[in-house]
Amino acid sequence: MADLISSLPDEIICYILSFLPSPQVIATSVLSKRWNFLWRSVPSLDFYIDNKDFWYSSLCSFLVSHGDKPFYRIRLRCYCSLHITESMEIQIQTALSGSRSVQILDLYCRWSTSNFVIPSVVFSFKTLVTLKLEQIRVECVSFVDLPLLKILHLKNIIYPLKIDLLELLSACPNLEDLKVKRLAFEAKGKFNPLSKLVRVNIYGILLPWEIFKDVEVLKFELVMPICRPILSLNFDFHNLVQLQLYVGLNWLPVVFKWLNHCPKLQSLVISFLKTHVRFYNLPRYEEEDVWSYPETIPACISSHLKTCRLKHYRDSEDEFQFARYILENAKYLQTMKIRNIHYIRNRHTRKEEDMKRKLSSCMERSDTCTLLFE
Amino acid sequence: MKMMKPYVWLQTSDDSIQQVEQEIAMFCPLICQEIIQKGMGSSKNCAICLPQQVSPAMLSLILDYCRFHQVPGRSNKERKSYDEKFVRIDTERLCELTSAADSLQLKPLVDLTSRALARIIEGKTPEEIRDIFHLPDDLTENVEVEEEHVDDRSVDDLLSFINGNDGGKLNILTILIFVFT
């Protein structure tokens, strides 16, 4: 039978191989004479390093053999401590700077033993569609232009990256998916609304709410109301269907303010602070500061909410009342998931039984909803 | 009076000629160039001669693909699920299709079929790949596969370096991260 792939030009074979992890691409060199050198022209660098001794030499030789040909995809995820030699650093930096038409750039490395720095020029690569950087140093960025960027994930970026986050976002007009976590960014400048933004996941950074006006999925991993005590909005999140909040003490007023501004919300996740963090440097709860449930039920609860999930639930009075409120008022609720805080699960079997019984008794009027304990 | 839909004449690799809706055929950049730049395809006598890679069967598949994507107003989800089903064909036809789409410069289809082929290869050993594509093993045993190791430091060197340097800095980093949160 004829060789099926022989009719394809080298360029297409390399393109097919560019979707595969580099070690496998290198392995194709033993297939036949034609394939012997093909792997060197594959425009993709894709290493998932979990064993330093094994992959290190492979990565080195890949970079050397590839020469200065540009990459379309660069994915380097390193899950073990890896020492990068100076010559290797230079090679990676050259590969990055030279790949001006790169579409996917995804770097995660615990290069704590190295001073490896990402050249700032990557922030002006006009073809970039996906940019994911984690645990990495980035050279001081002065100019950003990412017209095609759809996915931006920045986590634990180590200095000296210094740029106003709002300025950075304004330079990504087509952004759809934003994830920022543990960054010491400033966010004071002007911003343009990101009209294409769909998913946002923010951890520990404050940005003007207006940026997220049109999103569908919103996950805030910052403790409310401590980090953002006042929620004053003059608009609704009219597209929002999924919301996840991370809350501390006095959380009920904040949650209800959110619910009143999310008329179409279908899925709500509330994550309570775990105990050991709860007592750390937080304002004291004041007994007289009593809050009562609003007279009108927020529109999303009465007509849209389908799933509700409470994480790190410890069965306090306010938590239980909230769960009951949802169970009784959300007519279209399909699932209520409760995830206990660990100590209830591990040591207090009776307490857990009580909690389950209490919550189940709120369910009696509903036959369409399932109560799940995780 | 109702306007007649314009057609274009195409000649495939087996020399057969067929009439195709121009709107759909124009989806292929190569056909589009022939029509606009050379004024070809307007009659049976000046049919556009398609590249050798395009057999009648492949042309019909490609036109199906173009016909679906040419309709405006389809959602991304619809397009995605159509594409997924479209490439569920045997490997031999998938290779032929890639080659035909490439010769017509139909980039979105090349992209789709290339990804499908990559999924077939992914995780397979060279031996399995040879089987899938009927690749003859023409590398004689005397020819040695190139030595790939460039780094000449020993594993012990590496280990001692890493063990000696690591922990402290990581801890500082963790503390910093906690402060930021």
Written overview of the protein:
The complex is a heterodimer of chains A (374) and B (181). With 374 residues, chain A is of the alpha/beta class. Chain A is 26% helix and 22% strand. Chain A contains eleven helices and 14 strands. Chain A has helices at residues 10-17, 22-27, 52-66, 86-98, 165-170, 251-260, 275-278, 299-303, 317-329, 342-347, 349-361; strands at 44-49, 73-78, 104-108, 117-118, 130-138, 151-158, 177-181, 199-203, 217-224, 242-247, 267-272, 307-313, 335-340, 370-373. In chain A, strands 1, 2, 3, 4, 5, 6, 7, 8, 9, 10, 11, 12, 13 and 14 form a 14-stranded parallel beta sheet that branches. In chain A, strand 2 (73-78), helix 4 and strand 3 (104-108) form a beta-alpha-beta unit. The longest helix of chain A has 15 residues, at 52-66. Chain A is elongated and about 75 Å long. Chain A starts with 9 loop residues before the first helix and ends with a strand. Chain B has 181 residues and is mostly helical. Chain B has one domain (7-133): 2-Layer Sandwich (Potassium Channel Kv1.1, Chain A), CATH 3.30.710. Chain B has helices at residues 22-25, 29-38, 56-70, 76-86, 91-103, 107-121, 126-133, 155-165, 167-180; strands at 7-11, 17-21, 48-49. Chain B has a three-stranded mixed beta sheet. In chain B, helix 3 packs across helix 5 (91-103). The longest helix of chain B has 15 residues, at 56-70. Chains A and B meet through helix 1, helix 2 and helix 3 of A and helix 5, helix 6, helix 7, helix 8 and helix 9 of B.
